[in-house]
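> tool_call: predict_assembly(chains=two)
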Amino acid sequence: MPKLLRTTAAWRLSVWTTLAFALGTGLAFVIVYLLVAQTIRERSDAWLSGEAEVLAQVSANTPKDRLYGRIVREVAELATRELPDERNSQGQRVNSVFFLAEHLEGSQSPLWVGPGTEDAFLKAIQGARLGQGTPQSITVEGWPSSFRVVARPVDGRGTVVYLGLSNRADMQVLHNLTLRFLLLWGGTVLMGFLIAYLSARRTLLRVEHMTETVARIGSDDLGKRLRESASRDEISRLAQTFNLMLDRIQSSVIQLRSVTDTVAHDLKSPVTSIRGTLESALSSEPRGNWRDSVGEAIENLDRLLNLLNTTLDLAEAEAGALRLDRTPINLAGVVRQFVDLYQPAMHEQHHELAADLEDHVVVNADLALLSRMVSNLLENELAHLPPGSCVHIRLRSQQGSAQLVIEDNGPGFPPEIAGRAFERFVKGKNSPGHGLGLAFVDAVVKAHGGSVHISDRPAGGAAITLSLPAAVPQPA
Amino acid sequence: MRLLIVEDDVAIRGFLERALSEAGYQVDTAKDAKTGELQALEGIHDAFIIDLGLPDMDGLNLIAKCRAQGSTAPVLILSARRSVDERVKGLEQGGDDYLTKPFALAELLARLRNLLRRSSPAQNDRVRLEAADLRLDLVRHEARRGDLLLQLTPQEFSLLEYLCRNAGRVVTRTMILDHVWRMRIDPATNVVDVHIYRLRSKVDPVGRPPLIHTIRGVGYMLKNA
């Protein structure tokens, strides 16, 4: 993909890191440079002071005769030779040291040991007003580097010796240091930039790759997944998280599609039958029994409506949008009411409905939802049991929770739906319902913070166990 | 009795107008909140039937406005929204009853009667109910068909009482569950029917004209055949 290098995150990232790195190392170099320069200066200053002392003593102690000048000159020459860098590779002196003695007794001109003539040096020294004993830098006309000069009085009669050392060697050392640093620094920074850029690019290419993959994922093609590398770094975790999210989206889309299909299918048959019934009512003889047809149509419409309502309720419950209007409810009372309500219908099917309810089991629940839940459970039994079965409802309080068990001695859950009985639209092959009843029970129980599971009884038949958190008893 | 229906859906408005007129009410209709408000402020209606989803204003606002203008006539709210929240909100805003679409006409009529009775001061605290040759003594919990004392369970008595109070009118299964068992459930099976069959076998013995009639697709009615 054609893209300006400047707009890539890898570029920006590496530029900024390199900049920070360069600045940091540059600063470190400046500090080192200053320290080195100071050390060098201290060393030459110490040398200067020491030699000046020696020279002053020599000139003070040497008798002021004809040889005086020569002796002092010799000593000064010797001193200048001690310097390591005084001679270049060809063995020539590089004239970096001078010695000057002023106002010598019995001599009008100063004693001079050093490069060229003393005039320019004298002028510079006089102009600089040197303090005594402490070395100081002065610039001498005609010399590129400055001199470090120390003045030392010889005796009380105004004789002063000056010893000077060119900064040229020091400058050379520092200059070399700087040059090498710059070379190294440039190389390192360039290398650092390259490494930073390449690694950032490598990492960000993975992001780019993810972006491209995600961009290709359409609603029709949710099966695509990002490549997950074995490492557990941030980007591979991002990919994993993304894949998990895609899994969830895919499963809800698939679920949604199957729900839509099922609803459409479940709607079609009643609509067809309603239409047919009404049509036949219209086309029957005027005295034909249209009342029955219309009544049947309304009954079918009611069933349709029931399906729609339950689907909506369930969708609401599963989306976590159920608003619970919780009140303390004596579960035994509610269940007993339902047993009374369903008892005749059970008898009509020759079922036996027995209840064994522990009293004072109180839950904080939404009465309307709880009622529909219990009614769904009983409807479920009515719809699935072969005539002459037994249904047993048991309510117990158990370790802070209310346990409601509905057992029967029927055929149990068909194996094909075992484990999925609480999913919506899951129903046995011969089930007359829509497969929503237990899904609703499950959603309501979960909304109340409880759990529900089904099991087969050892003696045959099915058991549905609901567990709801019991209300904390209020102090009387 | 004069009613005002505020409903934007032409089909529902027409059907309500027809059905309520047939039931003996004088009916005015409005197709939006604005005209509804103008008509309501005339103060000539005994009850309002207001749909919540109006094109120009939320039905709840209309109710609040009417209440603010001093209207005290009972309001029956119609709504397609069926959540408990909506119901509570509707009743808090000044509605007196709430019915979700679609509804059984029988239920609408029953609720309307209930509202109108509630708003008129004369309450009927009868101790005796009669329909044809059926007599119910509400104090002694006794029911007689002619001279025959019926052996009814308390539940069967309540059921018969409810049918008797609504003699000549259709009651739906939902209404029966709501009033007799105080349950708001929608069973898909025939739980209510079985109770009615049992009651019928005691109230309508062979040889007597049957009183409890099944109105297919709607519910039941107690009437003299």
